[in-house]
Write a structure and sequence with these properties.
By secondary structure, this protein is of the alpha/beta class. An eight-stranded mixed beta sheet has the order 5-4-3-2-1-6-8-7, with helices on both faces. The chain has a six-stranded mixed beta sheet with strand order 11-10-9-12-14-13, with helices on both faces. A hairpin with a 3-residue loop joins strand 4 and strand 5. Helix 1 crosses helix 3 and helix 10 crosses helix 11. The two termini are about 15 Å apart. It is globular and about 60 Å long. The longest helix has 25 residues. The relative contact order is 0.11. It contains 15 helices and 14 strands. The protein folds into two domains: about 150 residues, Nucleotidyltransferase, domain 5, CATH 3.30.420.40; about 180 residues, Nucleotidyltransferase, domain 5, CATH 3.30.420.
Length: about 400
């Protein structure tokens, strides 16, 4: 079965093609990977394609996402990056959809009803759901007879207990759908299952903290394979300090700014685009640049220190929720590639006997336990595999159709 995965963001479109045969195996490498970057230049998109045999990089003189998507799909069966003979070989297409609201608690085959609901939920995730819909619409136009699947970032957190899901505001708002939804669920769930594999343990027996650290950041407390708490909330803005998002702030600040003349759009831009590492350092939302600059730049050092403080505070909250810890996993661009962040977080857990092997930590480990033998909890670095997780959900749904 050939499965195309689309992972759309506001500034990029990532795609992969997997081939999964009769039995669902452990992680497979994609046969083809592609990415469109919409930030390359005005009216220009950058396309990058990679297969086991070749790579392609070119500029696309268009800002039309459907046209760019068509050119991206052309590279599947044309030129040096060809891996199939024609698009008709694609059996199913899977999409990451950020917000599934209360209704979608698992992956579903996309119908008109599903797309209508994703569109309604765009008011909850305006930076994400609309571009997810664009990818769905593009495939409908290019591959009209191929079934499509929506895999929701919120689904894994849909079993949060009421005490974690309900905000301490009038209950009538919860009845209107204003609640903690949580995000990055596709990767949190994958990491929990991968952690169980790496530890050779039954997932039902484990208390896990998974730390998804990238430009967007979230932590989940997972007991018995179920998310029981998470840091992101009604939107992906809540919780940890992030690359350009503030994370949790005193809501009184926002009331104050509204009274000073800010409107909703200004607040949105400030909190989502101009805050976090970028807002504090004045340099970048990229942790690599912050780490490189912090020795000589006081604001970069402050941004790093604030990020670590936020991470440690939220890990502590998840630890209390779990009532103990068997393993903590770091994933995402920062979680996988920044040893100082992992070391700082684990240093805060030394009081409960968590210890890491600093040599292992420094060597860019992948799917590895970096804890010392005598550590009271394991410390894992797990490569994010959202696309593979989406592909496996497609395979499972296709098998029951």
């Amino acid at each position: 079965m050939k499965i195309l995965v689309l992972n759309a963001g506001s500034s990029s479109q990532k795609s992969c093609l997997y081939q999964i045969d009769d039995n669902l195996s452990d992680l497979l490498e994609p046969k083809w990977e592609a990415k469109i970057d919409w930030t390359y230049g005005e009216g220009i998109a950058e396309l990058k394609v990679k297969t086991s045999r070749s790579e392609l990089k070119q500029e696309l003189p268009t800002s039309d996402r459907t046209a760019a998507m068509s050119q991206l799909l052309d590279t599947l069966y044309k030129g040096d990056t060809k891996v199939i003979d024609n698009l008709a070989e694609i059996d199913i297409v899977g999409h990451r959809v950020v917000h599934g609201g209360d209704r979608y608690r698992k992956a579903v085959i996309i119908t008109k009803d599903v797309t209508d609901e994703i569109a309604k939920l765009a008011s909850f995730a305006p930076a994400h759901n609309p571009v997810n819909l664009e990818g769905i619409t593009a495939i409908e136009q290019i591959l009209p007879d191929v079934p499509q699947v929506a895999v929701f970032d919120t689904a894994f957190h849909s079993q949060l207990p009421a005490k974690a899901a309900v905000y301490p505001i009038p209950y009538s708002f919860f009845e209107q759908g204003i609640r903690r939804y949580g995000f990055h669920g596709i990767n949190h769930e994958y990491c929990a299952r991968r952690a169980a594999q790496l530890l050779n343990k039954n997932i039902e027996s484990l208390r896990l903290i998974t730390c998804h650290l990238g430009n967007g950041c979230s932590i989940a407390a997972i007991r018995g394979g179920i998310s029981i708490d998470t840091t992101m909330g009604f939107t992906p803005l809540d919780g940890l300090m992030m690359g350009s998002r503030s994370g949790s702030v005193d809501p009184g600040i926002l009331i104050h700014l509204l009274r000073q003349g800010y409107d909703a759009d200004k607040l949105d831009k400030m909190l989502n685009i101009a805050s976090g590492l970028k807002g504090i350092s004045g340099l970048s939302n990229d942790m690599r640049q912050i780490v490189a600059a912090k020795e000589s730049n006081a604001r970069a050092q402050l941004a790093f220190d604030m990020y670590v403080r936020s991470l440690c505070q939220h890990i502590g909250a998840m630890l209390v929720t779990l009532g103990g810890l068997d393993a903590i996993a770091f994933t995402g661009g920062v979680g996988e590639h920044q040893p100082p962040i992992r070391a700082s977080a684990c240093e805060a857990l030394e009081f409960m006997g968590v210890k890491i092997d600093f040599a292992k930590n420094a060597n860019s480990p992948v799917d590895t336990d970096i804890a010392t033998d005598d550590s009271r909890a394991r410390v894992l670095v797990i490569q994010a595999q959202e696309d593979w997780a989406i592909a496996t959900e497609c395979w499972k749904l296709a098998k029951v159709q």
